[in-house]
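Comment thread on ticket #2218

A.B. wrote:
> Attaching the input chain for the structure job we discussed in standup.
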Amino acid sequence: TLNMAAIWNLPVIFYCINNGYGISTPISSVMRTKHVYERAAAYGVPGIFIEDGNDLLAVRETMDKVIKDVRAGKGPVLVEAISYRWYGHSTSDPGKYRTKEEVDEWKKKDPILKFRNYLLDKKLAKAEELDAIEAASHKAIDAAVEYGRKGPEPSPESAFEDIFTE
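C.D. wrote:
> Ran it. Output below, let me know if you need it in another format.
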């Protein structure tokens, strides 16, 4: 896909959240390069690296520029952001290939908590305001889950609806 986007100079952003694993395999055992973004050069497209993909402001700053360039017709871009997946790849993945210490260390870098602390430190929001937003978010999620559980099962044919545009 990246190759075709490069050949046709398509306005596409390939955003890779690098959590250090491909399913349960450390990426260091399946890639010769240290970072995914380095592969962009082989396709003749820019590769952009976001060292802290858990830093909302760093991601936004980088992506503002990337989006501007892509919209200006400069072609596709491959962006790699270093982040983490706290849980296994799927419900059948217990995550035994990672240590508890590794997971706990990454949980300290939670992007929501990190941004919350930024807003509080800069006095851009009060804890009560953020708590209310969090409570409203949980309420909306619970309502959406309940709506999904009570709703009718989709028909098999609906899997093919709204996947193309004219």
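A.B. wrote:
> Thanks. Noting for the ticket: The mean pLDDT is 93.
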